[in-house]
Amino acid sequence: MDYTILMNRQFLVFLKALLGSCKDLLPIILVIAFFQFAVLQQPMPNIGDIFVGLVLVVLGLTFFIYGLEMGLFPIGESMAKAFAKKGSISWLLTFAFCLGFGTTVAEPSLIAVAKEAAIVAASGGIIVDTLESQLSYANGLRFTVAFAVGLAIVIGVLRIIRGWPIQYLILGGYVVVVLMTIIAPSWIIGIAYDSGGVTTSTITVPLVTALGVGLASSIKGRNPMIDGFGLIAFASLTPIIFVMIYGMVIG
Amino acid sequence: MELFFEFLTTLKNTVIDVLPILSIILGFQLLVIRKPIPHIKQVGFGFLYVLIGLALFLLGLEKALFPLGKMMALQLTAPEFIHAGEHVLTSVHWSDYKWVYIFAAAIGFSTTIAEPSLIAVAVKAEEVSAGAINANSLRISVAIGVAFGIALGSYRIVVGHPIHYYIITGYIIVVIQTFFCPKLIVPLAYDSGGVTTSTVTVPLVAALGLGLASTIPGRSPLIDGFGLIAFASLCPIIAVMAYAQLTEAKDKRVQKKLTTRNKIKQEKTRKNNST
């Protein structure tokens, strides 16, 4: 094929993605402009900075989506297929645990929440109010959540292999959460519920989704739509349970 | 020039964040699977684009959206705005905060639309379902769920109800819906709860929670500030299943109409034939 035609087509794809990103960002701009001018009735501060920032956000989103389809999705699916071909469940589960644990333990939003939670605990007299004990508490919380996410991906992958229906597992998890809420100390509950939401980062989600879909489509008798999705659901449920356990052990 | 250095710093941090994932992938690929990665060059470039994209995205958010969004959240919750002139609140009524709820819903909706991980899942779902699930409709349903969730969560902070009553009620709704909605959507709906709150939504929502909890008398920012994210991860599950139920109901109605129309046509032709 002619090289320039190929380049042109690539460029068109990129332009289309750029336009899509602009559309994705439009609602935020409208909301902020409306509240700033109509509700708070204030002028927009340093408009130049904001414009530059918006351009960066649009470019970033475009590159991200472009690279997603080129790199993240293919690698997730090809690894899932390779593991399915290899036929070793224990290696697959080890990989699943490492992926869950490794991506969560360094997650910036989790680190931020853990730090905040340590301050809550110290001011509530749950732990000694020193920097050292706060740090060890925050780290404990982080490792607890990371372990929970690792376990979640393992359970999720096992579910795909065995073809267990997801609703019983998730609804069972809800029952555990409700029962734990009754016995867990009240100061941990808000943090525990939030920790389910912050664990899955922007890079983990595409990888884990591709892994699930790839596995489900390479195992006979599995439907990628029904069996492939659901890994993230487990990863946002188990941290709630484990953080409450952590609160009960510490308290 | 300064901007470029800032970009490099953000890029460095993004790379550090991604390093554990990258080492796990490479480790397993080389030591366990022991095969070269297919299309290695393309995948490598893809990773590079993802890293650059994420770094640009984060830098842009830091420069433009976060400072403004956080400031607005604090201004809207400030006593000067709620009760013009009164600087110390003595008592609050939940309806004093109507702009806060509207802001919460609007910012929840709009940040969810721009959330990269939700885009990823929606794209994959459209691809896997061969177009039966539309990526944009899915994103809009999730965004409506987040909007409702954050508005409800703000209301909870204002009135000071315990969080678990709300969450448990939400769980019960999810259980009931699970039994009645199309089976294909269930795993995707459960997933959409976890993907909504990451890069864009969390910092703005956290600022809103903090602003609310620190200005309302009797609320502690450290205890009541938490919990908004939990609402934002529960409500999308309900919204996505509701979307599937509505689509199914509409399809059924159309189907019914078509079959009755066909029946009438058949009757007519039969009558014509007999005469």
Helices and strands of chain A, in N-to-C order?
HHHHHHHHHH
Query: Which pair of chains forms the biggest interface, and how many residues does each contribute?
Result: A-B, 103 and 101 residues
Order of helices and strands of chain B: HHHHHHHHHHH
Class computed from helices, strands and strand pairing of chain B: mainly alpha
Strand percentage of chain A = under 5%
Number of strands of chain A: 0
- Span between termini of chain B: 88 Å
**What's the gyration radius of chain B in Å?**
25 Å
What would your notes on this structure say?
- The complex is a heterodimer of chains A (251) and B (275).
- With 251 residues, chain A is mainly alpha-helical.
- Chain A is 85% helix and 0% strand.
- Chain A has helices at residues 3-39, 47-86, 89-105, 108-123, 131-162, 166-183, 186-198, 204-218, 224-228, 231-250.
- Chain A is flat and about 65 Å long.
- The termini of chain A are far apart.
- Chain B has 275 residues and is mainly α.
- Helices cover 81% and strands 0% of the residues of chain B.
- Chain B has helices at 2-33, 40-77, 79-82, 98-113, 116-128, 135-159, 163-180, 186-195, 201-215, 221-224, 228-274.
- In chain B, α1 (2-33) crosses α2 (40-77), α4 (98-113) runs antiparallel to α6 (135-159) and α5 (116-128) crosses α6.
- Chain B starts with a helix and ends with a helix.
- The chains are: A mainly alpha (251), B mainly alpha (275).
- At the A-B interface, α1, α2, α3, α4 and α6 of A face α1, α2, α4, α5 and α7 of B.
